[in-house]
Amino acid sequence: MVLKVKSRVSGREVTLGEIATIKGTPVERELLSSVPVADAPPPCGYENLSKEAVAKAVVNYIRENGVSFKKIEIKGAERIIVFSTCSIVDGEHLKRLILNFFKQNYPDYEVISVPRITVKLPYRKFKEKLSLDYLGNYSARFIYEITVNGEVVKKFWIPVRVERKVKVVVAAKPIPRGTKITLDEITLKKVRESRARGGTDNVSSVIGATARRDFLPGDVITERGIVPNFAVKKNQPVRVVYRNGAIKVELLGIALQDGVVGNIIKVKNPSTGKVLICKVTGNGLVEFVSQ
Questions:
Q1: In what order do the strands lie in the sheet with 2-3?
Q2: Across the strands, what pairs with 161?
Q3: What integer pLDDT is reported at residue 268 of this predicted model?
Q4: Which domains, ranges and CATH numbers included, belong to the chain?
Q5: DSSP the chain
Q6: Each residue of 169-187: pLDDT tens digit?
Q7: So what's the pLDDT on residue 10?
Q8: Which pLDDT score, from 0 to 100, does residue 28 have?
Q9: pLDDT of residue 139
């Protein structure tokens, strides 16, 4: 047999057939090829094997298994560099898998962070599977499996920080402090819940309001950041519209709260003294909801 200078191996053991060219009868070649001579290097690693160590491993194997040969001659390299088969699954790859998963299945979530995990595998070909194990408002957990020839050879859990996205009004262009906000200056956009705090999805409540501060494109328009353009003001008279099918009745009421279009407020009926629950629909105009 002739030892190679370099060899790439797979599996947990280095066999003689992987590091040497073996001559002899078919039976001799088959038997010697399977002789283990050393433990394989770790995935993506390498080790040096000496001719002497290989020879000792062959002799021990023959002695322990009661095999006999007329003659075995070992030639070739004095030292063999043995490389372990290597595939690397890195953090960026896992992150892309997780981002694509959310994009396809949960578009209302944003991935905040994925741990940087690197996995070294002693395989050239393998299959991977990513499945969702748990999903909450602020965290998720995935199961990542690697299979070779139908057998799971690696399995671990990946914790991920996530956050729900909600639709709110944001600035579409710069809005200077002290100016009244117009429709073309705002838009609805989905942002993280933590960014959306204090915001609203009610476009009507923002239009006509005065900016308390400067807003840049993408900034969430918060209730604290504007002076609302109230369509209805507290203690001021309003027209109350009552609808029931084709029947429409209007009466006079007194607003007990300020309100922008879309708000639900309390309105007092001065004739009966009853408090009505109404929705603001326009300037000085509300629609009856319930008592």
A1: 20-21, 2-3, 75-76
A2: 113, 139
A3: 95
A4: 2-85 (2.60.480), 88-163 (3.10.129.10), 165-227 (3.90.1210.10), 237-290 (2.30.30.760)
A5: -EE-SEEEE-SSEEEHHHHEE--S-HHHHHHHHT-EEEEPPPTT-EEEEEHHHHHHHHHHHHHHHT---S----EE-SEEEEEEP-EEE-HHHHHHHHHHHHHHH-TTEEEEE-----EEES-SS-EEEEEEEEE-SSEEEEEEEEEETTEEEEEEEEEEEEEEEEEEEEESS-B-TTPBP-GGGEEEEEEEHHHHTT--S-HHHHTTPEESS-B-TT-B--GGGEE---SB-TTSEEEEEEEETTEEEEEEEEESS-B-TT-EEEEE-TTT--EEEEEEEETTEEEEEE-
A6: 999 999 999 999 999 999 9
A7: 78
A8: 83
A9: 95
Q: Which pLDDT score, from 0 to 100, does residue 229 have?
A: 86
> Would the pTM count as exceeding 0.70?
no
pLDDT at 123: 81
pLDDT value for 115:
93
Which residue numbers in the chain have pLDDT < 70? none
The residues facing 128 across adjacent strands are 146
